[in-house]
């Protein structure tokens, strides 16, 4: 499609389906998704590029902005982008996962219409289908506060996106074929920092100034530790929540997690190591980048500083220390602490247990014994068009069954405006990381062993951090509170990407009988239709 045609389509789409008031600005993006040769670990492999970039371009926005993102798929296979942490309020059709959105066919385009309603913070986007994430196609998202909303720290001298993640030298097609054949993936080959291998990335600073790093773990299976030689890191934001400004020498980011740290270039003028290393692995993977002072007197010296390796208690204690700054503003002027989640009675407890096993001789992963398999039609479209037989409500239990793994298109029903407790129980010996689309939730507790009702006595009901991705340590549990105030079909998934691909996910259907636009937007007029929804109309004639 020529560029002028694409722009015309975008303008037509926006004029047809305006989802916010005219006072909220629009930002337009035209992205061409292609394959290209990349060499992040020194060998040529096929990467997924956006406008020729690996990683893809950052999205810069301000609270309530409308983002009009025209994605042209120049790959030879279907493609979707999803927006990790962007809540797509009242509009799960735009979420960009297969349960909500039809894939963009090869040679075609689709225009996402997103609004970053009532959000601030650091997030990222990624390709959600076909194990594409192992080839790239990811990039940073930053949502700045509106000009009159106070931010609890001075403007930094610079603001950098830092995308970290483990990486394979093999192409995503080879990795996908291994998973499709029922085999596990091998240990990753290395760690990338902004798409580059050891020593490849650099960040320029001026002595005496303070900088913000927006760090996201966009990897496939490894928790990572981040540190800067001789510099302290002050945590200020986690996935849209301003935190207590605690200082750390290094910080853990589990799969799918994002956070912002401030650091001051207060050391003697030279180059310093930025180090990212894997956690809870043997061997330990390590990669480095360079922090370069503008008046540097010399290159990095000595070995890169070491960090924690297999210590779970160290990571657990750090996680518990990450708390909400109750007096700071969030996306609105009122303090973040004005929402007293600890005083609200929960109406339902959902306990979710992850498991691994074989089904028909092939490796699968499950939640409450159900290993998710995609239906032939996106679940949200099946809901909208009232297509029977695509999925069944109640196909996954509220509690672990203890039974063997079986395959199903698992959907859990829930009531709009209910306030629920979800407990993630991890009886395996690796760290789990869970993400819920469409929401932020309060991480009220985490500890070792089995969760029981008595575990609630240790919950943080005052200043737990609100985020969209949480870890569960080995042989441990994590509990969250969620206010189900966003109607839609929302993916709850493992961020361990092979486990997600092989079934460790399901959809939370937040449902209301209301047809009011105050509760949910209509299906986008430009929505792609596929499967049993093909040939239908998004609007009456």
UniProtKB/TrEMBL annotation:
Entry superkingdom: Eukaryota
Keyword Aminoacyl-tRNA synthetase: no
Domain annotation Plastocyanin-like: ranges: 33-146, 159-296, 377-513
Pfam families: Cu-oxidase (PF00394), Cu-oxidase_2 (PF07731), Cu-oxidase_3 (PF07732)
InterPro entries tied to this protein: Cu-oxidase-like_N, Cu-oxidase_2nd, Cu-oxidase_C, Cu-oxidase_fam, Cupredoxin, CuRO_1_AAO-like, CuRO_3_AO-like
GO molecular function ontology, one term from the record: copper ion binding
Endpoints of the signal sequence: 1-22
Record flagged with keyword Signal: yes
Key words, A-Z: Glycoprotein, Signal
Gene3D superfamilies xrefs: Cupredoxins - blue copper proteins
Entry's family note: Belongs to the multicopper oxidase family.
Entry protein name: Plastocyanin-like domain-containing protein
Organism name: Gossypium tomentosum
